[in-house]
Automatic annotation (TrEMBL):
InterPro entries per UniProt: Acyl_CoA_acyltransferase (IPR016181), GNAT_dom (IPR000182), Ribosomal_N-acetyltransferase (IPR051908)
Keyword Lipid metabolism: no
Protein name: Protein N-acetyltransferase, RimJ/RimL family
Keywords in alphabetical order: Transferase
Residue ranges of domain N-acetyltransferase in the record: 10-177
Length: 194
């Protein structure tokens, strides 16, 4: 198995069905925090549903339709990034993330998302990467901004979540924009914002 360093004792690596026990323990630690804006904690409420959710991503990966990676900090699973949708033929994908509260404020999601977007654009030829986020989810919106994404619009009251209608913001970055930002950052010698 591979693990890519994110710096500061953190790594990014595949998250697979055989890790369901560890994934469930991680989800239990962050269930209330993570569940403020996304349904992942509700979809992984016990060992069977956690294993099924991880298996759904293993199946997506086998079909080249989605990918799932865990973020570890000092060996402990603390979050993840994913391609919820991945369509190499159309050249589009949707990235997403989650993180338990103990790992927030370190730039881990931004660094991990940057790695998977680099892979999608440079290795897989993806032209458009989307980031869909609840308008109430300020930390995730901040990640989209740090990734250099453009806010394209808001789908008003489009998503019923735990009995409440929420707005969804659509952010994206196109491959030429992604490459230009990387080139500009490298040319300036400035570190990229976390």
């Amino acid at each position: 198995m591979f693990a890519i360093s994110l710096g500061d004792g953190a790594v990014l690596e595949p998250l697979e069905p055989w890790q369901a026990d560890e994934f469930l323990a991680h989800m239990d630690r962050g269930r209330d925090f993570i569940g403020q804006h996304i349904g992942l904690p509700d979809a992984t409420a016990d060992l069977a549903s956690a294993r099924a959710w991880l298996q759904s991503y293993a199946d997506k990966a086998a079909a080249d339709a989605g990918w799932l990676y865990g973020i570890r900090l000092d060996g402990a699973l603390v979050g993840g990034v994913l391609f919820r949708v991945f369509d190499a033929v159309a050249g589009t994908c949707e990235a997403g993330c989650w993180l338990e509260p103990s790992a927030t404020g370190r730039g881990l999601v931004t660094r991990a998302a940057r790695l998977i977007i680099d892979w999608a654009v440079e290795e897989r030829g993806i032209h458009r990467v989307e980031w869909q986020v609840s308008s109430a989810n300020g930390p995730s919106i901040a990640v989209a901004e740090r990734l250099g994404m453009t806010r394209e619009g808001v789908l008003r009251a489009n998503h019923l979540y735990r009995g409440v209608r929420q707005d969804t913001e659509i952010w994206s970055v196109l491959a030429p924009e992604w490459r230009a930002a990387r080139t500009a950052g490298a040319a300036s010698g400035a570190p990229r914002a976390e």
